[in-house]
């Protein structure tokens, strides 16, 4: 069989190219999905069957939307995200005071949202719910209204994050944890699975799930992220004053500022403690301080 037409073109190659383009069109313009005509979706976004995309939605390049995902009004989804089946993004808040304000739910670039995750949009309080870049929200995580999640955060399966919580960069939340409204979780924190957090968690520490207590600093995580032994030892010295000196938080922060060398980490911890609205976690577990 001659694969070439009169123009000298390879008919087999042309047919394969045509089929590829059809597959791309099928992916981008999924006939079994509902996409509101006012939604703004980049040309190469992949949309699987039975997806619902509402008006006032923006989805940027390279993102994949799995089957049965629901993306509602106010969603702003960044580049190269992967949203797995059953997730619901930008549903209205579960806040009885919500009166239909024009608010958004923002998902940063390169973020993965696994099965059945729910991310509510903001209320009049902050106007937005934010999940940063390079995050992983595992299956059944709930992100409530006005939550701010930083970059490179991992939230494990079935963790429930209440309204107006803040989780800073590189924090890791263990599975089946629950975080009380307005709690602030600092950067580089690791929280054990099953934790029930009702107090703020200062940066760089580990938290146990029994008494929600300080369990030493997250030294392994810090080393993985390039912190030196000198920096890690400096952080340990700060927390020894804060948790082992017997001083209250106010006196401890004064002692830290007066007696310990200035550093970015020192200033970050002191500022966190001073600004805490709910108070910081208590307790100490010596066996974990390494």
TrEMBL record:
Cite the GO molecular-function annotations of the record.
acyl-[acyl-carrier-protein]-UDP-N-acetylglucosamine O-acyltransferase activity
**Gene Ontology CC entries for this record:** membrane
Spell out the Gene3D superfamilies in the cross-references: Hexapeptide repeat proteins (2.160.10.10), Udp N-acetylglucosamine O-acyltransferase, C-terminal domain (1.20.1180.10)
Whether Translocase counts among this entry's keywords is no
Q: State the superkingdom.
A: Bacteria
Q: Name one GO biological process term.
A: lipid A biosynthetic process
Query: Which Pfam family, giving just one, matches this sequence?
Result: GMPPB_C
Q: Where is the UDP N-acetylglucosamine O-acyltransferase C-terminal domain?
A: 200-281
Alphabetical UniProt keywords: Acyltransferase, Cytoplasm, Lipid A biosynthesis, Lipid biosynthesis, Lipid metabolism, Repeat, Transferase
Q: Which residue stretches, if any, does this entry annotate as coiled coil?
A: none
Start and end of every Mannose-1-phosphate guanyltransferase C-terminal domain?
33-130
Entry protein name: Acyl-[acyl-carrier-protein]-UDP-N-acetylglucosamine O-acyltransferase
- List the source organism: Saccharicrinis fermentans DSM 9555 = JCM 21142
């Amino acid at each position: 069989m001659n694969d070439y037409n009169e123009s000298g073109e390879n008919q087999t190659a042309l047919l394969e190219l045509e089929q590829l383009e059809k597959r791309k069109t099928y992916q981008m313009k999924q006939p079994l999905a509902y996409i509101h005509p006012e939604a703004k979706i980049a040309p190469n976004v992949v949309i699987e069957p039975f997806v619902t995309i509402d008006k006032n939605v923006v989805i940027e390049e390279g993102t994949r939307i799995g089957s049965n995902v629901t993306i509602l009004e106010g969603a702003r989804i960044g580049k190269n995200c992967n949203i797995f089946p059953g997730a619901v993004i930008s549903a209205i808040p579960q806040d009885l005071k919500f009166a239909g304000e024009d608010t958004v739910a923002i998902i940063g670039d390169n973020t993965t949202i696994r099965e059945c995750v729910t991310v509510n949009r903001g209320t009049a309080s902050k106007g937005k719910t934010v999940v940063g870049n390079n995050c992983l929200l595992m299956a059944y995580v709930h992100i409530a209204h006005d939550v701010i999640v930083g970059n490179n955060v991992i939230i494990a399966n079935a963790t429930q994050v209440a309204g107006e919580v803040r989780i800073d960069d590189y924090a890791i939340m263990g599975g089946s944890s629950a975080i009380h409204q307005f709690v602030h979780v600092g950067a580089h924190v690791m929280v054990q699975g099953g934790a029930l957090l009702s107090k703020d968690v200062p940066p760089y520490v580990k938290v146990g799930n029994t008494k929600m207590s300080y369990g030493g600093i997250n030294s392994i995580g810090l080393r993985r992220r390039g912190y030196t032994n000198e920096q890690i030892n400096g952080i340990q010295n700060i927390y020894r004053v804060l948790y082992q000196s017997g001083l209250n938080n106010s006196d401890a922060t004064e002692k830290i500022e007066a007696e310990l060398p200035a550093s970015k980490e020192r200033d970050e911890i002191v500022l966190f403690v001073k600004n805490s609205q709910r108070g910081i976690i208590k307790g100490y577990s010596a066996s974990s301080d390494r």
